[in-house]
């Protein structure tokens, strides 16, 4: 255990002790791009989405970490452009670990606000659990995959319509791949 102790000339005073454990900071995140074309007999509609979700975290010990994702998403469907901002703090518990693989579950809260020019914002939030897997490629770098969501979510449109959902979501919208760089 390392620490800092302040001393006076007459006697030693324990004023402040900072414990430096083996905690480490990690950064990473996910990046996404999609282009979807929908056609019917009358028209064709194209949606393009770009997503950037950087992540920063702090490993408290071998099993527990805390972190947050702060991100941005841009979508364009026809002439309609949507800007979405997201923040999602979490606590991570790693429950099965080997030299190469770590299984974990993130328990957290997420909030997003989406804005289309000329209209009010649509807000959504969720609270729940997301399982994941980290594959260690080196002492400093690992690939991360998260799949699924178990919890509660609520979406609210600018017109006041609320959609509430509780359950287990295992569709491909809940699959993400990213990386972590550990300092």
The poorly predicted ranges are 1-21
Widest β-sheet, arrangement of strands: 1-2-3-4-5-6-7-10
Number of strands: 10
Give the strand content: over 45%
Structure report:
Helix content is about 0%, strand content about 70%. The chain is built from no helices and ten strands. It has strands at about 25-40, 45-60, 65-75, 80-95, 100-115, 120-135, 140-145, 150-155, 160-170, 175-180. Strand 8 (about 150-155) and strand 9 form a beta hairpin. It is globular, with a radius of gyration of 22 Å. About 15% of the residues are buried.
In terms of topology, how is this protein built?
Layout: E1 24-39, E2 44-59, E3 64-77, E4 80-97, E5 101-116, E6 122-136, E7 141-147, E8 149-156, E9 162-169, E10 175-182
Antiparallel strand pairs: 1-2, 1-10, 2-3, 3-4, 4-5, 5-6, 6-7, 6-8, 7-10, 8-9
Keywords summarizing the entry:
183 residues, mainly beta, 8-stranded antiparallel β-barrel, 10 strands, 0% helix, disordered N terminus
Short note summarizing the structure:
This protein is mainly beta. It contains no helices and 10 strands. Helix content is 0%, strand content 69%.
């Amino acid at each position: 255990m390392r620490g800092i102790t302040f001393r006076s000339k007459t006697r030693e005073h324990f004023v402040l002790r900072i414990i430096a454990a083996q905690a480490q900071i990690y950064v990473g995140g996910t990046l996404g791009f999609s282009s979807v074309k929908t056609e019917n007999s009358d028209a064709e509609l194209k949606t393009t989405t770009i997503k950037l979700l950087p992540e920063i975290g702090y490993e408290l010990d071998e099993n527990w970490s805390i972190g947050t994702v702060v991100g941005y998403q841009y979508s364009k469907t026809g002439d309609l452009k949507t800007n979405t901002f997201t923040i999602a703090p979490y606590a991570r518990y790693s429950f099965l670990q080997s030299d190469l693989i770590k299984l974990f579950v993130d328990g957290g809260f997420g909030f997003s606000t989406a804005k289309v020019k000329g209209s009010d914002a649509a807000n959504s939030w969720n609270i729940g659990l997301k399982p994941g897997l980290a594959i260690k490629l080196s002492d400093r770098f690992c690939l991360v995959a998260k799949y699924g969501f178990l919890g509660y979510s609520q979406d609210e449109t600018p017109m006041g319509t609320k959609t509430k959902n509780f359950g287990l979501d295992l569709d491909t919208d809940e699959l993400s791949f990213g990386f972590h760089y550990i300092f």
